[in-house]
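hey so u asked for the seq, here:
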Amino acid sequence: MVVLLFLGAAAYFNLGQDEDPPFTFRAMVIQAYWPGASAQEVAEQVTDKIEKTLQSVPHADKIRSYTKPGESITIFQIQEKTPPPEVTSTWYQVRKKIGDMRGTLPSGVQGPYFNDEFGDVYGSIFALSSDGFSMEELREYADKVRQHLLRVPDVAKVEMFGAQAERIYIELSQKRLVQLGLDFNQVLGQLNAQNAVEGAGVLNAGSDNIQVRVAGKFDSVQALKDLSIRAVNVNTGAASNLRLADIAQVKRGYVDPANVKVRHQGKEVLALGISMVKGGDIIAMGKHLEATVAAVQKDLPHGVELSRIQDQPKAVERSVGEFIQVLIEAVVVFLGASFISLGLHTKPLRIDVWPGMVVGITIPLVLAITFVSMFYWGIGLHKISLGSLIIALGLLVDDAIIAVEMMVRKLEEGYDKTRAATFAYDVTAMPMLTGTLITAVGFLPIGMAKSGVGEYTFAIFAVTSAALLISWLVSVYFVPYIGSLLLRTHARAPGQAHELFDTPFYLRLRALVDWCVQHRWITIGLTVLSFAIGIVGMGRVQQQFFPDSSRPELMVELWLPEGSTIEQSEALAKRFEQRMFQEPTVGSVSVWVGSGVPRFYLPLNQIFPQGNVSQ
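ran it, structure tokens below
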């Protein structure tokens, strides 16, 4: 028993901890872009072909598509009964089949691109803000921070949000070109030729091969401005050499229109979302992240600040803490009830604590062995397994109470401790096993469900059934032994009425049972009526797969009419920010402009990037 207790303690501290159980998302997003095409053209020549190809993929279930001018988004869902090991091979089939039909898409189509990591949860999100630095400089610092975060244990992926790609813009003045008699294509051709990357061969230098490269490619904006353009006037035929800066405005900027933007506490920031490896310990990862962020912050220049937007490790730590609190409360309640129900004597009035103590010892023993089984089966601590343990707490003491009570009664009848323990095993072992199996079978449909619901809630069946069977083993093997060591019950005097079976409460209970047996048809009718009322009442219970979130976040979606620009969405988001800052109970405000927030907890429905939305 001592060994099992220590193994259980070791298993508990090595169990993976997360907010939700591991869950396989059976959805893939396929995106394709066709610049310049109308929504009708994209739908008929791109989206329709992708949909028809996906219909032949194994396990196909639902295909949803959204088409906008120049863009096609298709969400492909496979059947819920698809086994998780086959999901990866199904995504391979999607890529292969669409790759085979890629040649039938119109020229100029970019993609299709695939996202089969649609269900990644970014439980920890950090914001990198700055004063006096450009967004490109901030992106470089964010990339360095990302490299540090990727080395943290249990971190699977670090994704950057809000970064804007840099561009070099060359704006040619049509008026200037006409004055000089230049052709736009002449300028464009010389630009492409000057900056082309071409192989110039290899020079055999005897002992070494030396790569020969053509010099002249652009390495700065100034070099581009100084590019010599040989211009031929199409009207007069006169040739001249001009600097590019003489006929065009050359400047560095960011992609326009902007990609997704992220704002935190009224500032434009870059966000770093961190997802955890499957089966990892998110609380331990959170502590490592805090240490890494503290070290990285010291190396960042003054004016660059790294702050946290989302902290899932704290939420999980709070859930585990609540479970420990509930566990302690339950143990105290069970011990109090056991002390009173098993040890209360009225003649004279006293409480024998030893029967309750035997029951109390079984609770940590059963939980310890349950933690060992969870560690062996790879079931971590999350909201489903913790809820299952709380459910099991009300059931795992039943068998121990039955065994202890049987021993106490036999000791009162004059049996010695060994004979009383043996009798408790011989008489109660099989009936208790039958009752335990019947209770465990009640959770069997959850364990056998071939669906996403079954996969998500499997821990209810696994943990509860394991705890019940382990409680039976402890009750028939360990409880008799512990009882033989601790129980102090003595045999009652010959001819003395049993104090429990001679009480007014027990006499009334016996009379009620006798009446139910004598009027069995009335009893059966009342039982069937109660069952029917329960069925009718069950139909009125709200059905909801995911419970309401207890998180302290409020999600707000800001939608503008279709076709609105991201600048309009950002202006609306700024107005909303300022309004929220006036609320005294608001701790922080974070906004994703042009998209929904990344999935920071499992049940969150994501909003795909589009310029007319902020969240």
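Residues 128 and 142 are 7 Å apart (CA to CA). Residues 312-343 form the longest helix (32 residues).
lmk if thats what u needed
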